[in-house]
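Sample pair:
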Amino acid sequence: FVAQVSARQLFGNSQQSKKTVEQQMSTSLAILTIGVVPMCEMLPLLTEYIDEQHITHHSLLGQMQREDVMAEYGASPGDELLLTLLSDHQLAHVSRQKVERSLQSIVEVLDNQGFDVILLMSTASIARLTARKSMLLEPLRIIPPLVASIVEGHQVGVLVPVTELLKAQTQKWQVLQTPPVYDVAEPHRFTVPNNN
């Protein structure tokens, strides 16, 4: 949904001139994720608007071993926790502060490499990243206000992939006039191992 909404926000509907469509298809897009994300499910939503050869995926933790992730991104006392899926297909709690610092560094590198658009694809409430030249799309800044404008006070349902993400939803969706109904739709069964 994030990918589809972001692509539509960027590129509008399909009723556009041939020149505009050609320009869109040559737009370079860097997708930035924290952990493992099923890109095979996301790419078809984006390739309607951008040629696949112009899309790259960069994962902060997705290629790292669990032990390395916990050594570098494990929470220190006082850190906020962020839940992410690692390469072993298990969830882990990591430090939000450490992740945000590293994400900002990656955004700066991608920005300097000349990507037109950088899309942060994450369920985490991260909205403090900045880019100088690239258009930076963060789900927290786009999705809740967009949904609020569409539903105009009607009640909506919010589905999250794991129970542990329910707690963070109240703040994320406070822009809605009517509080939403929350539920878990677990496409896969994950466990959160003891990181001690």
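The mean pLDDT is 84.
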